[in-house]
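Q: What would this chain look like folded?
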Amino acid sequence: MSDLNRGIMKFQGADTPKAVTISTVLILGSIMTLIIWALKVAYVVN
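A: My prediction, written as structure tokens:
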């Protein structure tokens, strides 16, 4: 069992490249969305 099958990702196939890629895209996309939203709210970006 790899380390990626532990913790939150407790399902079979959690360590496949496809699952890791999808998770990475979702996490980084969420972070970028929050940064862009914060800049717009702070009136830095129009």
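The longest helix spans residues 17-41.
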